[in-house]
Specification:
Helix content: 10-25%
Distance between the termini: 159 Å
Structural class: alpha+beta
Strand content: 35-45%
Radius of gyration: 44 Å
Shape: elongated
Largest sheet: 33 strands, mixed
Number of strands: 35
Length: 655
């Protein structure tokens, strides 16, 4: 008899049936187990399990630590969407910031079926509050260059959308620190990568600036072979730039082709920005094609204005040598002469219709308030030594009121502080003035030498404001050879030594003008009542010796058939004072010829030409005394018997 009770027959049959069901239905049982396992997996699944493998994979591919501090989630579908929060990507070990990139959230879509074949296709990526810190270093290059790893190439993204992004670019060696906000905008084409709008600023070569505009998707920055299109506007102080076009490898500025507009109040402001030293100028606006060829930056086919002058041509700056090397070939159809005033240390005119800026206007006001006219602004020796240059300038027409200037041709050479203007030629009064000027700024004091030759200058055009001189006939020439020491035009001329010579041959001039010079009242009255006439010029010459800035007249004469003018005295360039005496010796006989010398005195800024009143007063007193005795004898004091003779000055003419 059994110790345990025997189960009923019905219960035994049920247990046997349960044990036999899986054997009778194996596939259904397997599906049930799989379904149960999936249900349990779904209930317990956490995508964060994959954070570690993903982080290790990125580090293997880049050599940088990658961390997902927040949640990792996946929305399954035909194109799964991965979401990750709190991302950070480490910087290069030499960089200033510990992280190169962070993002509050990353969403990326990844195509599932190509992924099964090992083909990673990411059609879109969305970034919320990304922060990117880029840094350039002379030794290590850029922090965007990764160490080679064993994971192959990084996946390529088709589109990136950025919300509230910020980017920093730091180049400590170049004193450049740029901070920009970046936000994506809708592309013009549905299949195109979204462009970005950027806004911000910082410091470029230690100069504050602002930047705004639109550029292609940041994804294109990683492609060093494909052009990167942009349209940006920047401002640094009063200097404004507008760049539109294409860059290749933007972080290295390896190659680019941009239409580049540049405008500002003074070209001299470019010196701290690009290292090119240009003398002060009035406001300017230029637009041309900017591209790079190795170490040479080329600005080609540009046009625009500087002050009231048009300017066009080609320019380049080569940064591959010990100093920046500026080369330029410039052309002006109409050059306003005072726009070149900065080259001699003087500001341009600021009167009505003249272009200027507040700084130059203030300098002009200071110059007007000074008793002197020669520019005394010192040249910047550091600028003369900071760059080399080879600049050519041609001006087809010159606007210079009161000056008979026609055109201009100049060639400037600057090498390591040694500046040469060879030639500096002007078309003047139908003739020309050719100059060769050397300024040696390699020492603390500039040494300057100027050799100037004038040929074929028309006498009438040299006296455009003298009505009686407008009908004069004759040609004038001359030579100037000066050398001096000083760091301003005033110092150079005030210390100069050398010679100045001018001369002319035969011609014609107003007889009335010569009678005024001789103060012949009778002849003046005759020509006023009748008509003026021209008289022959036999010759004219002036020969000055220059010593320590003082020009001393060794011989000075102007000989006509009517009168000989003879001069003596000095022109002091150091003190800017005039002290000349012009004596007229009429060749005809005339009553009421006062015969007083003409005194040319005063300063360069306020010259004064007047008769010697003391001698006039003496002759007048003699005449009155004689008149008290016999009226006819009163004429004796002013009687001119014409002792003057032909000067015979042909031998003094400058050939």
């Amino acid at each position: 008899m059994s110790a345990y009770p025997t189960p009923p027959a019905s219960e035994a049959s049920a247990a046997h049936s349960q044990r036999a069901w899986p054997r009778r239905h194996p596939w259904l049982s397997l599906l049930g187990l799989i379904a149960l396992a999936i249900a349990v997996l779904i209930a317990l699944w956490d995508w964060n399990w994959f954070k570690g493998p993903i982080e290790r994979e990125v580090e293997a591919r880049t050599g940088r630590k990658f961390e997902i501090a927040g949640n990792l989630d996946v929305d399954l579908g035909r194109v799964p969407v991965i979401r990750a929060d709190g991302l950070s990507f480490a910087n290069a070990d030499w960089a200033k910031q510990p992280t190169m990139a962070t993002a509050q959230r990353l969403e990326l879509a990844i195509e599932f079926w190509p992924l099964l074949k090992g083909d990673v296709r990411i059609p879109e990526i969305h970034l919320t509050q990304p922060r990117v810190n880029l840094q350039s270093d002379p030794t290590h290059g850029g922090n965007w260059v990764f160490k080679s790893g064993g994971g192959g190439e990084l996946p390529r993204f088709r589109k990136v959308w950025i919300q509230d992004g910020r980017m920093e670019f730091l180049d400590a060696a170049g004193k450049t620190d740029i901070n920009l906000t970046v936000n994506s905008r809708e592309p013009r084409r549905e299949d195109a990568a979204p462009p970005v709008e950027v806004e911000g600023g910082g410091r470029w070569k230690n100069n504050a600036f602002t930047l705004q505009g639109r550029a292609e998707s940041p994804l294109e920055l990683s492609n060093a072979q494909r052009p990167y299109r942009l349209n940006l506007r920047a401002a640094a102080g009063a200097t404004r730039a507008h760049a539109r076009g294409e860059l290749v490898d933007p972080f290295h500025l390896r190659d680019f082709d941009l239409q580049f507009a540049l405008a500002g109040k003074n070209l001299a402001d470019l010196y701290p920005l690009i290292g090119v030293a240009i003398p002060p100028t009035p406001p300017y606006a230029l637009d041309g094609r900017l591209h790079r060829d190795g170490a040479r930056w080329n600005y080609q086919d540009f046009t625009g204005k500087v002050g009231d002058s048009d300017l066009a041509g080609d320019a380049s700056v080569d940064t591959g040598g010990p100093r920046p090397y500026l080369r330029a070939d410039l052309v002006s159809k109409r050059l306003d002469f005072d726009d070149l005033a900065g080259f001699i240390g003087a500001p341009p005119q600021t009167g009505r219709g003249e272009s200027s800026n507040p700084e130059l206007a203030a300098l002009n006001a200071q110059l007007d308030a000074k008793p002197r006219v020669l520019p005394d602004t010192p040249y910047r020796l550091d600028k003369l030594r900071a760059m080399d240059a080879d600049v050519k300038l041609k001006a087809a027409r010159i606007n210079a009121p009161g000056w008979p200037l026609d055109d201009m041709q100049a060639h400037l050479l600057l090498e390591n502080g040694l500046l040469k203007l060879d030639p500096l030629n002007f078309g003047v009064a139908d003739g020309d003035i050719r100059s060769n000027i050397t300024m040696d700024a390699r020492n603390a004091t500039i040494r300057t030498r100027a050799d100037i030759t004038a040929r074929g200058l028309t006498l009438a055009k040299l006296m455009p404001t003298v009505k009686l001189g407008q009908d004069a006939v004759g040609k004038l020439g001359g030579r100037i050879a000066l050398s001096g020491n000083g760091n301003s035009i005033a110092k150079m001329l005030g210390s100069s030594d050398g010679s100045v010579a001018i001369g002319m041959g035969e011609g014609q001039i107003s007889n009335l003008l010569m009678e005024f010079a001789g103060i012949d009242l009778a002849e003046i009255l005759k020509f006023k009542l009748t008509h003026d006439r021209k008289i022959p010029i036999r010759c004219g010459f002036g020969d000055f010796a220059v010593n320590d800035g003082v020009m001393t007249a060794q011989s000075l004469a102007f000989d006509t058939s009517d009168t000989v003018l003879v001069g003596t005295g000095t022109i002091n360039m150091r003190d800017e004072k005039l002290d000349l005496v012009i004596r007229a010796r009429p060749k005809d006989r005339s009553f009421f010829s006062l015969r007083a010398p003409l005194l040319v005195t005063g300063t360069f800024k306020q010259p004064n030409a007047r008769p010697d009143y003391k001698r006039l007063g003496l002759r007048g007193a003699v005449a009155l005394a004689l008149g008290a005795i016999a009226p006819p004898a009163a004429l004796l004091a002013t009687l001119e018997l014409g002792p003057g003779k032909d000067a015979g000055c042909a031998k003094h003419l400058v050939n």
